[in-house]
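Anyone else keep sequences and structure tokens together like this?

Example one:
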Amino acid sequence: MSRSTELPDLAELGHRLEEHGIPAWHQGEELLATMQTGGRSAATGPGPLPAQTLLCAAEAARVLDVLPRAVVTAPRARRLTFATRSGPVDLLPLGDRPVGSVLLDFGLGPLALARRLSTEEWCDPLDNRAHLADRRLEPTRIAPNPFAEAPRRYWIAARLLGTLDLEASPALLVAAREALPDQLEHLPRAAPARRAIHHLLFSSRPANGLSFLRRSGVTPALFPGTDADAEARIARLAQRPIGLRWAAWLHGTPIQQALVQLRMPWDLARSIERLDRMHPIDEHVRSFREVAVRRILQRLSSEEVEGLFAWRRLELAEADGRGDGAAAPDRLEDLRVRLEEARRHQERSGRIRKLALDGAAVMRILDTGPGPRVGRALAHLANFVEAHPDANVPSRLEEELRAWAGRDPERLS
């Protein structure tokens, strides 16, 4: 039996705690995702699944007695972590504090909501299920300011807005703006910021969270120069290549500085940098010279090229023919045709280079000198091998070449 089948799932873990007299309440982003989908949520993009959390109405020592394989993962055992079939579950021991009081300490309304696994009873001290139905994200309280208490809540709020398709309430925005001047230097940067933004960019409604970050002052402070209009485009861009949505959001800010600040992994950073530098693609290669077109194919993957075209089309659709946008769609289509022709030429050249017969062998077999006829012969053999991959051996190609020449001797003239 594999280790994974021996592990409990979330419900079984809750049942085990309840059997030992420890009320277990399901809380957090995974609960919210389950409320939306009716079951375990799937990742919306290349990001992690929502965290699973159980609030345990007992002291940490009591929880560890019941679950000796749980691991202490926070100072003073304020958080324990236990492995389940669906991933790690965070266990938060409440001691003798009422669950409703603890929920208010989470600062953001959607997190002040829990459901007891054994009875399906809800603890909802602020009627947050109604707020969720109204698509509104409220703070749990104004004083103390939730963002002053924990600056990481800027990132958490943005993620909730994007994943749950909520709008920031006026009270939330006021609290975020008021706290930022004092909390900006304490705002988590580097990997924590990168992970939060990545999750947001690949959420179902990234514009909601991105708008909050801009209106609260976080984006202008950390990534000056980004375009507010870009926020609405993000969800309409493909999720691959991963760097595309990043580049579309960061475009306009000093890109190198942003990538260093976010401690972006090297491969992803290079992709974002390429996409940012090559946008808008039709402006970048306005001359359409052959060397410029070849350079695109050499420097960018096919996914990146398609992403740049999609990004540019969205911009041009919004421009609606104003200014330079009037000629740009035709220019973009011309570039697409040129790139497709260049790609086919590259593919044909690649197939020819892999042939078991080279140009010299073709000239010897056909008893002819250099010229276009040799190129036509090699192109035919390349197409032949594409249709018959096992035929790429000298004897089989020579047989096909002689048959091809015999069917139409004028090909050799």
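And example two:
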Amino acid sequence: MPTEKLLKLARLNRIISQEEIEGVAFGELELSMATFQDVVFNALTFSKTQFQQCTFLSCTFIDCQFVDCHFDTCTWHATTLQNSQFDNCTLIGSSFASCAQQNVTFEKSKAQRVALTQGEIKSFTFKNGKWLDSAFMQVQSESVLFAGSEMNNFVLNESDFEQVNIENCKVQRGLFLKCSFKDKDWNNLSWQACSFNESQFSNCVITEAQWQTNNFIAASFEKCQFNHCNLQQALFLKAKFNQVVFNTCQLTETIFNESNGQHTRFEHANADKSLWQDSEWLTSTWLDCKLAFSDWSRAQINGSTVKNCDFTAANWHKLAEDNTLWKKNNKKMLRKTDELQAKSEAEA
């Protein structure tokens, strides 16, 4: 009878309170359009329960376990989840708004079009599952881990990666917006078609990363090092670099337009067809780099050094540089490798 009464209240769009859940058997229950308010779920197991368009307002889940459950277009608002686990569950089109989650684990679960906004998360683990088309938006995070999962077309907004970690995941089309990365030592990361817009990298060492086609719009890098990384066709638009090293990296067709760099080094890099338009560089170095067909239009180079670089057919339209090794070395090499352009410059 309690279960039948609960289903009836859901059909009538009535608020379900603490009294109405007493004695309800949630196992294999199909629940649609139910609204729970100020309900405490304590040490309950939900097995194969189907939740469709259900709402949890100011509810509390303590020591609960969800096994083989399905959540479709459900809403958690100002709800607390504590010491709870989701095993082999599916969440689609659902949201957690202003919620508090502590010691919550998702194992072998799928989250698609799920949004977590303006809440607090502590000791949150999502492992061996799928995180698709989903987002963390302005969530205060502590000890968050994504591990062994597929992450595709997702958003992490204003996340501090001292508290958020991604380990052994297949990452594609992620937007890391206004995130901060500090003291990271990453090896062999393969994050494809991701954007790190307005994000900050500090004291990071990134080795053998496959980051081609990634975007770093208005990102900043402080005392970072890229070693043997694939950054082909990456977009560093309006980015800032300070004491950054690119060592033996693939930078073909990479864009540094409108970027600003100082004390930055490019060593043994293949940067053919790269773009440096309207960028500014102070006391920076290019050593043994391939820069054929690169474009330096309206760039400003001051106090910088270039040695043993190939600038075949590079474009120098309105390049502004001071009387440093850049001017003495680069222009000389350009005229050696591109006699036609050297002649046109002399006639101009």
